[in-house]
Write a structure and sequence with these properties.
alpha/beta, Alpha-Beta Plaits, Peptidase_M20_dimer, 4-stranded antiparallel β-sheet, Amidohydrolase, Bact_exopeptidase_dim_dom, Aminopeptidase, 29% strand
Length: 367
């Protein structure tokens, strides 16, 4: 079967059978089955999902990563696993690149990392801990891009993702009758104060950042009870790791002050930190050359700066010596990533596979 047709079949399978983070059991089995049929050496893990495969020979190693998990979201009135993240496409493109590379001479070993739990923000670390990037010099990723970033037929050599972190908070006040507010401590008051405080945090306008409440839960069905407890959530993002760190310090400080002002206890839990991209100029240059050679000068698009995040960048945070870049594939994707009804032009899959294969081929001969 022609590689482009095979890529389409792989995508269709993964799209039809999505699995959420850390539960990609059948996805892992399918990947292993595909790799076995391709006679590619690979291994799985006893304690986590995911697969690592390798082709080529020599001491040098370069690598590519595909994320394999889906989101849990409401689709047409039903909550279920759903590949609105585009990870089904990422797997298909990386397998396609592997199929193309198997027919070519390589300058070193090429490792294929099929990583779980990108959506949880900690799947990359699980692969790092299990040696997936040990000895690797260049690391590449690939991802479909929304139409507002680049259209179908255009490919970018690097995606400059922003950093992100989430906060979950719990306010502990005292319930009271609506007629006697002096007897209680309204848990909503400090949350409203926090909402106002978030809008007073300012950094340079040349540095994109945001901090906003995304969840508030308090009270029950009775409207004459002042709630003494409430939970809230905050989504924070910044284009640089430095600004996100400063933003977190400011929010921590503000919550402590608000807790003291309203005389309530506020418990906080920071989670799912995802770092901003640390893009290697050398890796991005190789990808740029590969794009121009594989699909033509007119298909090249500049590097993308996006407020989205991806745990791919933990690889370079944990291993600063890695030369890494994530390639962005234009696919007329809409209405947007993570929209339950996200669609895209499937012809982009073969384009992505060819660009990725050419990038890895060039990198295999580059020290």
């Amino acid at each position: 079967m022609a590689v482009d047709k095979q890529i389409g079949e792989w995508f269709t399978h993964f799209h039809r059978y999505p699995e959420v983070s850390w539960k990609e059991v059948e996805t892992t089995k399918k990947l292993a089955e595909i790799l076995t049929s391709m006679e590619v050496e690979h291994h799985t893990f006893d304690d986590v999902t995911g697969v690592v495969a390798e082709i080529g020979e020599g001491e040098r190693i370069i690598a590519v990563r595909a994320d394999i998990d889906a989101l849990w979201q409401e689709v047409d009135g039903e909550f279920r696993a759903n590949h609105s993240c585009g990870h089904d496409a990422n797997m298909a493109m990386v397998l396609g690149a592997l199929a193309y590379l198997k027919e070519q001479e390589l300058g070193c070993r090429v490792r294929f990392i099929f990583q779980p739990a990108e959506e949880k923000g900690n799947g990359a670390n699980s692969m790092i801990d299990r040696g997936a990037v040990d000895g690797v010099s260049y690391l590449f990723g690939v991802h479909l891009r929304p139409i507002e970033e680049i259209p179908f037929g255009k490919v970018s050599p690097a995606i400059h993702h922003g950093a992100a972190i989430f906060l979950e908070g719990n306010v502990k006040g005292i319930d009271a009758h609506g007629a006697r507010p002096q007897q209680g401590k309204n848990a909503l008051d400090p949350i409203f104060a926090l909402a106002a405080f978030l809008k007073t945090i300012h950094f340079s306008p040349y540095e994109p950042y945001s901090a906003k409440l995304t969840k508030i839960q308090a009270g029950g069905d009775s409207l004459n009870i002042i709630p003494g407890s409430a939970t809230f959530g905050i989504d924070m993002r910044a284009q640089s790791n430095t600004i996100l760190k400063e933003l977190k310090i400011q929010v921590d400080k503000g919550i402590r002050s608000i807790s003291e002002l309203f005389d309530v206890e506020i418990e906080v839990n920071w989670s799912d930190y995802t770092p901003a991209a640390e893009v290697s100029e050398e890796a991005a240059t190789l990808a740029e050359e590969a794009i121009r050679e594989a699909i033509g000068e007119e298909s090249f698009a500049p590097a993308i700066i996006t407020s989205g995040s991806d745990d791919f960048h933990f690889y370079t945070i944990q291993r600063p010596e890695l030369k890494a870049a994530m390639i962005g594939i234009g696919a007329d994707l809409g209405p947007g990533l993570h929209h339950p009804n996200m669609t895209f032009n499937h012809d982009a899959l073969d384009i992505g596979a060819k660009v990725l294969a050419n990038t890895l081929h060039k990198a295999s001969f580059t020290n």
